[in-house]
């Protein structure tokens, strides 16, 4: 009978998982070489390049992955190529079903809708990694995940351009009241007006949050002849002739259009409410494609009814329907029908990042990151773990193993780890910490099959252990 305990989550007693993963040193024909993600010279200095060995920690067919929210086909292709068992859903799941399913899987892939709270994650005893196939990670309890040895990856900028282009379209559409004119004609009404319709040339765009999306938008807006001002909590280099202003109030007072591109944080909740709407220019416009919590929508409704705000475009809402075809009514958000009844408001169903280009790029980016993490333990790009990598094990190094040890960041742990590894030659090692959690990778040479188990059990027995994985 082959030895089985290759992955163990010490804190949670992961016997069930361990029993499903059997050791095998012969890669299947579907196995995709993780080494191919890095240039051949990666980290090698002047040594001649040698073929990287595929780490094969276990039968990859045993890895179970739950993909929700219509994650792109590109990711499915990557996981299928690995032989992972993929369960795919087009929408998010109600919490009780999510809890049921998450108990079983090693990987979960979500987008912005699925909330992975501590309550849900507490049930995820087998979970190694979460892939957010989007930019935002506010839907995941990142700290809880890290403390339980669960890495989280996202795609930090693959849909930024799509959001920026949508916002440009909305600036013009609001200035020309396109939504209303189109709706009227769809209803058979001809209504040719120029009153309160404007060119955007020469107008000021105020960007709140000058990160990946805000700065991309800045370039597009200037190309359309707009003046750009931005407010951010950190100093950021201006692109083109855009100018950073010192306060949100200053930005609101100067801008004809205000657009929000901040993450969901406690500090950005209701960032725009009654006070801020009153600071905006009379007849100005508000665009929110960040998160629904950033704007106080009842206050916006009042400001639009009073005419202070001449138009708005919203792509995100505090509560969003779970699936296409679901209704956007007062059952979901108390003010939904009031909002829908306003003039010159563009309401879109969270489609800022929903383009073919963005979704296929995100599928590849997050899919690859997950495979690298599962197969090689590489955390580059993780949002809640220290970022560590080691150059791949060479093909000739057949008896080398890679040890991954996620642990509490306490004094003396590395001494204990090295005592366990001291009978072997540690070829290379890296260790880094992020808050309370530390991550160690070590490649060890000439380890016999029976010694792998000893190393695994030795590391697992340390009090600081969160998760030990032995890959070979
Ligand atoms: N509607 C959609 O489909 C999409 C929405 N998003 C949302 O857009 C957000 C922004 O995305 P990125 O530009 O990629 O993020 P980013 O992290 O590159 O930039 C965010 C910027 O906001 C700034 N910031 C943080 N708190 C602030 C505050 N209180 N006031 C002013 N600035 C503040 C940060 O310093 C940073 O420069 C994401 O977090 C996500 O929630 C992202 C992609 C698609
Ligand atoms: O990337 C983000 O943060 C987004 O908001 C896009 O979310 P989605 O992938 O459309 O659920």
From TrEMBL:
InterPro entries: ACT-like_dom_sf (IPR045865), ACT_dom (IPR002912), D-2-hydroxyacid_DH (IPR050857), D-isomer_2_OHA_DH_cat_dom (IPR006139), D-isomer_DH_CS (IPR029753), D-isomer_DH_CS1 (IPR029752), D-isomer_DH_NAD-bd (IPR006140), NAD(P)-bd_dom_sf (IPR036291). GO terms for molecular function: (S)-2-hydroxyglutarate dehydrogenase activity; NAD binding; phosphoglycerate dehydrogenase activity. The keyword NAD applies. The gene is SER33. It catalyses: (2R)-3-phosphoglycerate + NAD(+) = 3-phosphooxypyruvate + NADH + H(+). Belongs to the D-isomer specific 2-hydroxyacid dehydrogenase family. PROSITE patterns: ACT (PS51671), D_2_HYDROXYACID_DH_1 (PS00065), D_2_HYDROXYACID_DH_2 (PS00670), D_2_HYDROXYACID_DH_3 (PS00671). Residues 27-50 are annotated as: Disordered. Its EC number is 1.1.1.95. GO terms for biological process: L-serine biosynthetic process. Pathway: Amino-acid biosynthesis; L-serine biosynthesis; L-serine from 3-phospho-D-glycerate: step 1/3. Residues 402-472 form the ACT domain. This is phosphoglycerate dehydrogenase. It is an enzyme of class 1 (oxidoreductase). Keywords: Amino-acid biosynthesis, NAD, Oxidoreductase, Serine biosynthesis.
């Amino acid at each position: 009978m082959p030895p089985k305990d290759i992955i163990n989550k010490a804190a949670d007693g992961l016997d069930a998982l361990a029993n499903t993963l059997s050791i095998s040193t012969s890669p299947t024909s579907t196995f995709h070489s993780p080494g191919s993600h890095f240039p051949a010279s990666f980290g090698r200095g002047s040594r001649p390049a040698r073929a990287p060995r595929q780490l094969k920690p276990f039968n990859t067919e045993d890895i179970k992955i739950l993909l929700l929210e219509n994650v792109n086909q590109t990711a499915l292709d990557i996981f299928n190529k690995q032989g992972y068992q993929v369960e795919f859903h087009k929408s998010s799941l109600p919490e009780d079903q999510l809890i049921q399913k998450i108990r079983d899987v090693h990987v979960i892939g979500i987008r912005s809708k699925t909330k992975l709270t501590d309550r849900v994650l507490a049930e995820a005893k087998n979970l190694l990694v979460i892939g957010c196939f989007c930019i935002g990670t506010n839907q995941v309890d990142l700290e809880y995940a890290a403390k339980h040895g669960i890495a989280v990856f996202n795609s930090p900028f693959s849909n930024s351009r799509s959001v920026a282009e949508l916002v440009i379209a909305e600036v013009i559409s609001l200035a020309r009241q396109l939504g209303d004119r189109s709706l009227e004609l769809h209803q058979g009404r001809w209504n040719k007006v120029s009153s309160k319709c404007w060119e955007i040339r020469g107008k000021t765009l105020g960007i709140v949050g000058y990160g990946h999306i805000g700065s991309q938008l800045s370039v597009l807006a200037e190309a359309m002849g707009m003046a750009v001002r931005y407010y951010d909590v950190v100093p950021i280099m201006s692109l083109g002739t855009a100018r950073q202003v010192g306060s949100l109030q200053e930005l609101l007072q100067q801008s004809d259009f205000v657009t929000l591109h901040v993450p969901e944080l406690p500090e950005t909740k209701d960032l725009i409410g009654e006070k801020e709407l009153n600071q905006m220019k009379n007849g100005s416009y508000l665009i929110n494609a960040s998160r629904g919590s950033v704007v106080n929508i009842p206050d916006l409704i009042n400001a639009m009814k009073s005419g202070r705000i001449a138009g708005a475009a919203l792509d995100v809402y505090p509560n969003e329907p779970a699936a296409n075809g679901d209704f956007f009514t007062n059952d979901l958000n108390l003010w939904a029908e009031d909002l829908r009844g306003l003039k010159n408001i563009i309401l879109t169903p969270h489609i800022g990042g929903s383009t073919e280009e963005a979704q296929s790029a995100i599928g590849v980016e997050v899919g690859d990151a997950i495979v690298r993490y599962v197969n090689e333990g590489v955390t580059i790009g993780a949002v809640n773990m220290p970022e560590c990598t080691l150059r791949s094990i060479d093909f000739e190094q057949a008896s080398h193993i890679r040890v991954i040890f996620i642990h509490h960041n306490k004094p003396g742990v590395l001494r204990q780890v090295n005592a366990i590894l001291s009978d072997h030659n540690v070829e290379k090692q890296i260790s880094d910490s992020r808050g309370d959690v530390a991550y160690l990778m070590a490649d060890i040479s000439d380890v016999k099959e029976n010694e792998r188990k000893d190393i695994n059990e030795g590391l697992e027995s340390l009090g600081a252990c969160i998760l030990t994985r032995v890959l070979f």
